[in-house]
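Field reference: "sequence" (input) and "structure" (output). Example, Cbb3-type cytochrome oxidase assembly protein CcoS:
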Amino acid sequence: MDILYLMILCSVSLAAVFLVVFIVNAKKGQFEDDESPAVRILFDSDEVKEEKGTGDEKDDEKEKGEK
């Protein structure tokens, strides 16, 4: 019977820890943007790189010069 009390105490403590971690992350904004990752896969990877502006202008100039 003592082990049952110990297991209940451990499970309630673990649930409380998870609740605190969830609340802290929710206040930091961890769960704000839930739509972008699902939509991001629909775009072509080249389009995403162009939008980010990776700073590969020198590489682009080299390719233009080689052609």
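The helical segments are 2-28, 36-40, 45-52, 57-66.
The first helix runs from residue 2 to 28.
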